[in-house]
Every structure is written in structure tokens, then in C-alpha cells.
Amino acid sequence: MLMAACVLTHAAIALPDDGEVASPIGRAMGFRPPRRAASIPNPDAATGKKVRSLLKTSPLPAAWNSCDQGWISPIRNQGNVGACWTFATCATIEAQLRKNGQGDYDLSEKNMVNLNGWRFEPNDGGNYDMAAAYLLRWGGAVAETNDVYVGTLYNWTPSPELSPIIHIQQVVWVPPLDGTSARIDELKRAIKEYGAVAVSTYWSTTDKQESVYRNVEYGHTHAVTLVGWDDNYPTNKFNPQPSGKGAWIMRNSWGAGVGSNGYHYVSYYDRNIARNYDGAVFIPASADEDYDVVRGYDPLGPVYDVSIPRYDYTPPQIDLQAASFTAGHGERLEAVGVWTSVYPNDFEISIYTNVTRYGTSPITNGVLAVTREGPFAHAGFTTVHLDSPIDLVDGDGFAVVYRPRYRTTMVNCALGDWCEPTHNYGESYFGRTNGMGVVTWQDGTEAYKEVDETDISWGACIKAYTRLTGKVREGDKPAETDVGDKYLADLAATNSVLYAETGRTFGASAGVLGANGRTLWASWLTGLDPDDPDATDLKLSIAVTNSVPYLSWTPKLDARHYTVYGTTALGPNGVWEAVGDLATTTNRFFKVAVGQAASQE
User: Fold this and answer.
1) Is-above-0.85 flag for pTM?
2) Is the pLDDT reported for residue 472 higher than 70?
3) Could you count the other beta carbons within 10 Å of the beta carbon of residue 591?
4) Is residue 48 part of a domain?
5) In a domain, 270, yes or no
6) Domain that holds residue 544
7) What b/e sequence results for 42-81 when a residue is b if at least 16 CB atoms lie within 10 Å of its CB, and e otherwise?
8) Segment 109-155, tens digit of pLDDT
9) CB-CB contact of 30 with 78 (8 Å)
10) Count: domains in the chain
11) Do residues 266 and 301 both lie within one domain?
12) 477-503: string of b/e by CB count within 10 Å (b at 16+)?
């Protein structure tokens, strides 16, 4: 049987042992084609000029299976919900975490379905651009245990907004297959490099066979992951038979009872697998790039690439893109993130400080602080780390200006009834250069009108990553013998509604933390305006993953430092100490010291 080492089912879903879903429509799918066109090779490749390769060019083996490396997480089951795109997305993240020795994770697909930001119902489907938007704005990824997946719509529930346990700051787009050996090799190298690649294909709810080949091209309906290949897989395994040997190893999300232990062989000659649309790999941040704050005006990701012609418009000449921000308290700019649909590509990124916000250009009165140049080896989203981080001045305007060598302009914009992001004047800019190198800037609220008068605005798909350098203030820390009485009184006096609706526990909901019965005792919410009526439903929760505590606020109180303190007893005999590992601590009660918020403008 295929992939014996990977045979496990998703324990969170109550499904029959064979993975079958008791439903009139059988198994669900859910791939929704993106509006964005697929990535394209560097134009110099056709002229014979030297270009950088997409991935490493070491010899490829005749067969590869990432399951054999221990990189692939257990087979999941999406049940009767059109969430295949979230399962394929999470599979690539989980593979990366295993491959890099970062841990064995089970990430919540339900959280991504509910909180991706688009106006779709759970069964309306999605794609990898939607997944990228959710992950890159740090809406996730969150642990399965904190938002458990359910396989049917009748018991589907809303999801909580939780702090991500994994930050995604790089997305690799793998170009679609086109029948050439070069594209096949690129896909193979991506699988070997990253462990798993999320792709799309045509699939039927009745497909169960181990080997699949279709000599007719259909519309793509399903999102899956490719985890390997076999150049010598025989043609007689398929019906009908393809013209040559070879097959991809495809990981499905219908449980272990479908295909062979949840996997399928799909012929190299199949007219649907990994064609027409980019494949995707979502790469977790390493420890040294796990920043505190992400900023950006693209909450719904790269809706359009306006540098590539579409049937409904000729793209304008856009040479530069920029995003303008205002620094918060104690922030240090350490990296930025940008997209490219052309691969390989070269970039120039310039950071300006002391910018006058809301001017006619993103750099009005600004001072050039740093310029970073380099190559992009692949299409997709890349975090570019600054050689010299910039300590930002509180309240100072700063701008990120991005100039790719080969034009590529991702924008976040409205799309009919599906999504309606809003971008304000002075946030995003798009620039053109004339023959003398002079740049003419247009604000994102105006640039779009050349393309679509019915649109709202364009948001530049640019991120800025900062670390918070301001420490928790001394007055925010709990006293050694403090039992919280004065904080109870203060909260009751300043906001009786908030005091009552949060269980009278210092502004946080009291609750059990984990199976050992530890209780969140208190929290100090520095920066919270007690007179803000929007904060009357304030809730705070702690989630623990791999012994690390993660805090979440509803409504969100922006990014802030926090320290978890614990004690074995309350009152005069209790000693509060910082807790580094909630899984092993013997403390029974906890407080959370929360520092000053960073601006999210």
C-alpha cells in the first residue's frame, strides 16, 4: 500500500473509520480559482541571457517521497465542507515545521475558513491567495486544539480571533505545469526543497482510486498537496493509459479511506494536476525573523496583479510601489515584505524616515535611511531583512518604496460582492518614471481609476515588520503579595459594564488553562481606555502550544509586550515569578503583565 508511514487520521473529526462522509453529496472539494494570473518566467530567459534558477539545480532522483523523510503530517479529513484549500495550505506549513525541526504541529483549518476576510460561506471554497492574505497579516496560523475542525455544515461554528502560534513571512509560488520537462523539474525541485507543494486540479466527489489520469482538461475543483513523484510508475496502473510512465504522489484531504491510505498517484500526463494556476508553499518564520508587529494595507492579499494584461484592461506602466506608515511607541524596523510575479527578479527597496504623511508622494520631506538591493529567486512573497535596522521615532512617518527590475504590481482592491477592503488617502502610492528617471506618484485612491472606475482603491501589497523595544513599565508588574483587590476596585469604578461582563477578574475572563486546572487569575491592561464603549466585551485568553503561552484579546488591543507571572498560592504566602514554561510549571494561578501598545496605523 502507498505511504504506509503516513497513515493516520484526523482525530478531531467524528467520521467513520474508512474516512467516508455520510452525506448525499459525498466528499467536499472547494477550490476557487484566483483572479490573479499565474506567475511568469523572467523575460531574459527567452533571449538566452543569464538568469538565476528558481531553486537549487542539483540532480533529481528518479523517485522521491517526502513521507519517507518524516516531513508529512497525518492525513486529514475535510469532511463535507469545501475547505480543501485550507488543508492543502496547512499541509505545506506542517511539512516545513517538521522538515526544519521546529515541531510536529496540527494547525486549524477551520480558523482559516472563517477568518480569511472574504465574504464567503464555509462551503464557498477558496484559494492560496486567500490563504496567503490570512497568514501574512498574522490572522493565523493557530493550533487545531484552539479551534477544532468539524466536518459538516450543520454543526459549524464561528471562530475566535487568536494570536498566531506560527508566523508566515514567505510564500513561494511554483509555476503551473505546461507540458514541458522544465516545468516538471521545477515542481519536483520545489517538492524536494520544501517537502510539499499545494496545487489545484480537477477532482470528482466520487474519485477513490489509487491511480488517476485524465486526458481531458476540466475546470479545477479541488486543492491538494504533492509530496513526491515516481518517474517509473507504470502506465498499466491507469485507465485509460497515458502515453508515458511517471506519476506524482498526491496527498488528499478526504481521510485515509480514500485512494491508498489517503494518497493517489496522478500521471505526469494528466491534463489537470498543477496546471493553469500557481502552486504554493507557505514557509514559517525562523526564530530570528519572528517579529512583533506586521503592518500593511493589504488585508486580503494580492487580489490582482495589475502589471499583467487581463481581458478587461491593458495594464498601466507602474515602476514603483510604496506604503506609508506612522511609527508607534518603541519600534525598530527590521524587515519589509513584497511580492513578485516574475521569477527570477531583482529588487531595490528604499526606506524613508521623517516623512510628512498624506502628502502628494510617499516620501514628502522624507530622509533616505537605507536602501537594500538583491535578487528574488522565486515568485511569491519574500521578507527582505534590513542590513541595518532602523530605530523609529515615536509618531514619525516612514515609507517603504519598492522597485522591482521587471514590473510586477500586486494590489489589494475591492472585488464586487466578494470583498471590500478600504484604503485611505496617503497609505499606498504607485509611481511611474519618465526617460529622465523622474518619478510621478499617484495615490492608491486615484491610480485604480485608469483600470476600473467602479473600484474603490488600490492598496499596495507591502508589509513592514518591527520589533517592540519599549519594555513593560515597572508599574505594570504585579506586586509580590498582590491579590488583585485594588485592580478590582479600579475597574469597577471606571467601567462598571466592563467590570461585570468580564467576570470581575481585572478585565480578563477567568478560565481553566489546560488539563491541569491552572487558572488565569488576572491581567493588567495598560493602554486600555476604560471609557471606550467598544471595549465592553473585552476578553483575554491564553493558549499553550509546545509549552509557549500565547495571548489573545477581543477586541484586539494591538501588539504589546506581555509577561506571564505565576504563583502557587494567593495572598501573603504567594510569590509571583515570571513563568517561562507553562507546561512544566507547578504554579496554579497566573497574572499577565501587558506593556504599552504599538500603533498599528
Assistant:
1) no
2) no
3) 23
4) no
5) yes
6) 474-594
7) beeeeeeeebeebbeeeeeeeebbbbebebbbebbbbbbb
8) 999 999 998 888 999 999 999 999 999 988 889 889 888 899 889 88
9) yes
10) 3
11) no
12) bbeeebbbeebbeebeeebeebbeebe
